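Researcher: Quick test of sequence recovery. Tokens follow.
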């Protein structure tokens, strides 16, 4: 009877492993960055140096933003006529209009915040990439 129990435990572990593998295959990476990488077309010619990695979509910035935010809720979001700016814990997803749809730029928050600060200002809040100091007694002095 002990062999049978081990066989059942082994089969259960194998089934769980197969389910996890299937989930990973069908749903890709488990981050906003992975979501963009899996769903949009890589456009290396639109990269901004080595910091901002570009992807494109034939959809408008608002349509792309809806797809991304439906899958991954951002910590902060800013939208204006120039595009959609999404802040996550470590990354930013910036979606800008181009003639044939959108360019989607993936960038670490540390380089994205200074790049887009003139646009997003304090709308991105007190994220790790922020250079704004707090206002408590003795802070930032």
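Model:
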């Amino acid at each position: 009877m002990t062999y049978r129990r081990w066989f059942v435990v082994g089969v259960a572990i194998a089934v769980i492993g197969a389910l996890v593998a299937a989930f990973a295959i069908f749903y890709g990476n488990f981050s906003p960055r992975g979501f963009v990488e899996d769903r949009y077309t890589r456009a290396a010619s639109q990269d901004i140096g080595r910091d901002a990695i570009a992807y494109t979509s034939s959809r408008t910035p608002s349509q792309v933003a809806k797809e991304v935010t439906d899958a991954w809720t951002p910590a902060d979001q800013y939208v204006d006529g120039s595009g959609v700016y999404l802040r996550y814990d470590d990354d930013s997803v910036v979606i800008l209009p181009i003639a044939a749809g959108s360019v989607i730029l993936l960038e670490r928050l540390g380089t994205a915040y200074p790049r887009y600060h003139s646009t997003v200002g304090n709308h991105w809040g007190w994220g790790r990439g922020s250079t704004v100091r707090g206002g408590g007694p003795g802070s930032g002095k």
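The chain is about 40% helix and 25% strand.
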